[in-house]
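Q: Joint fold for the lines below.
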Amino acid sequence: MEIRKGIPVSPGIAIREAFVLDSGEATIPRRVVHEEEAGREVERLQRAVADAVKDIRTSQKRAEARIGKEHLSIFDTHVATLERGLLDEFIARIREDHYSAEYAVSKVMRRYVKMMMGDDYTASRLPDLYDIQKRLLRCLLGERRADIKKLTQPVVIIAHDLTPSQTVEFEKDKVTGFATDAGGKTSHVAILARAMSIPAVVGLGTITADVSGGDTVIIDGNTGTVIIDPDDDTLRKYSQMARSMEIFEMKLAVELRDLPAETIDGRRLAIYANIEFPEEIPAAIERGAEGIGLYRTEYLYLQKGRMPSEKEHFEAYRWAVQQLGNRPLTIRTLDMAGDKFFGDIPPPVRNPLLGRRSIRLSFEEVDVFKTQLRAILRASAYGRVRILFPMITTQHELLYARQIVNEVQGELDAEGVPYERDIEVGIMIEVPSAALIGDILARDVDFFSIGTNDLVQYCLAVDRANEQVASLYQPAHPAVLRLIKSVIDVGNRYQDERRRGLSVGMCGEMSGDIAYTALLLGLGLKEFSVSSAMIPEIKKMVRSIDMTTAREVADEALKFTDAERTQDYLRTITERLMPEPGKRVGSEVQ
Amino acid sequence: MQLVEMANKYHSSITIAKDGRKVDAKSMISVLTLAAAQGAELLISADGDDAEEALESLCGIVEIGFGEE
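A: Joint structure:
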C-alpha cells in the first residue's frame, strides 16, 4: 500500500483498477515486487517473450511473402537474441533484484544499449535492439493495456496530464476517476472531472511512475489522497465512505431537485450547468439545472482530427437543445489556442495565453467561425439557444462578432432556413479590460458571463497551470472582487434602462464554490453556472442565506486588503451558514 | 554482428568460444558480451544437419574480420 497526496479538484471517491495512459512512448517505472511475487513476474515475462517471438514470426512470414526467404535471418537473430541471451538476464534481475518484469527488461536493455553505443560498429545495430525491446514491452504491457476507446470495465485513469483531445476519446461511462502528475485546480482534467461528476486529484508529481496498469487505486477527490494497492482495512474503510457519500448526495439531489434556488427571503436565482459534452445534459437536469450556462464546444473540433462540418455542429446542438425543453442552452463559440489544430507543428509562441486564441482565432478563420454560427442559429429554431463569445477585450471585437452573426443570418434568410431572429447574444467577461468597460459592452449584448478562471489569471498575471506561481492565483484578491462587483453592477443597472434587460451570470470555478456563494449573492449575482455535480450543494447554500446577510458579507469581504484574510473570513461565514457541507473541496484549495 | 546473422541462417546450434567462455552464436547479446577484439582467437562449433556449411561460412566471415574491414 502506498499513499500519495495531491490537489483535490473534483470531489468523491473512486476505487477501481488503474488504467495508465502514457504519452505514446512507454515509460517504465522503477518498480520492485515482493520476493514471493518474483515467480509470478517471471511467468509474466516468459509469456511476454513467447508472445513477442510469435509476433516476430508473424512479421517474418509477412516479409517472406513480400521479399522472399533470403534476407530474413534478421528475424531469426531477434528470436535467438531474445530467447537465448536476454531472457536469462531478465529473469536474473527479477529473481535477484525483485524488479518488475517491465523494469527488468528496460534496465537490462539500457545496459546493452550503452555498451553498443560505445563502438561505431555495434552502434549500427542498435535499431535491432530497440526493435526487440519495443516488441517485448508491447507484449508485456499489452496484457493490461486495453484500448482507451474500448474499455470493458470501469477504471480510474492515471496520466501525466490530460489534453482535451485525449479526453474526447474516453468511454465516459467506464471512467470513474482521474489522477494526474501535473495540473492545477483549473486544468482541463479538473474541469472535465467536475463536469462528469467523478473524483479527481491532480498535481501528484509521479503518480504515473508509482502506479502500474491494473493496480487497484483509491482516488479520494475530497482530500487529495491517492492510495495504491490498498490493504483490506483501507479498502473497506473507503468503500464504506464512498457508499455513504453516494447516499448523502443522492438524498441531497432528490431533496433539492424540485425546490427553487431561492434565498430564505425569497430572492430567486437561476442555477445552470457547465457542460463539455451534450451527453451530460440529462444528468444535469436530474440534479436540478435550470439550463446550460456554458456549453464548451471545443470537443467538436478535437474529436475528429479535422474541422467539424456544419452538420456535425448542428446535430450536436439540436440534440442538446431538445433535451432541455424550454431551458436555455448557452453555446460558447470556439475558445481555444490555434496551435491545437491549425498546422502540424505550431511555431513556439512566447505567451500563448496572450496570443492568437479564442475569438481572435475565429476572426482569422472566419469560415470556420461562420460554420459554427450557422449551426448555432439553425439549432435556435428548436429551443432557447444563446450565443456566447469568449475572450472579448474591445467593443470593436464585440461589434465585429455581431456583424458576422448578422451576415450569417442574412445567408440563412436567403436560403429560407429557420432560426430564432431574437437570439440572445452574450460575451464572456474574462479579461480585465472587458470588465472595466462593462458599461460600454453592455450596450450591444443581452448577457454577460463572468469567466472567473481567466479573469483571475489575466488580472493577477498568473498562469494558473504554472506550478511555480500557482499559489498567487487568488480568486479572493481585492482586485478580482472589484472587477466582479463592477460587472455585476453594470448588469443590474442596465436591467432598469433596457427593455430586454442584461443578465449577468458567472461560469467560472468561483460560482461553483460554496465559499463564495454568499459573497456573490450579496454582490447581486443572479445566475450561477456550475458543473452539475455542484448544483445541489450550491442550491442548498443559496437556500440557507438571506439577502441581508449576503449583502453584509459582500460589504465585509470588500474591505479586506488581501486575499488571505478575505478567504479566512469567507470560510468562517460559510461554515456558520452551512455547518454540514456535503462534500467540500473548493474552499479548501486555492 | 554479421556473424550472428549468418549463424541464424543455419539450423544447427552454433557456439563461439573465447578464452574458454562459450556463448550462443545466434544471440546478438551473447556475442556482444564476448567482446572479441581484433586478433582474438575464437573457436566456433556447430552441431546439426547443416553444421559443416555453417562452419565454413562462419569461419569465412571471421577470417575476413567479420566481413567489415
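Q: Anything notable?
A: The first strand of chain B starts at residue 13 and ends at 18. The helical segments of chain B are 2-7, 28-34, 51-63.
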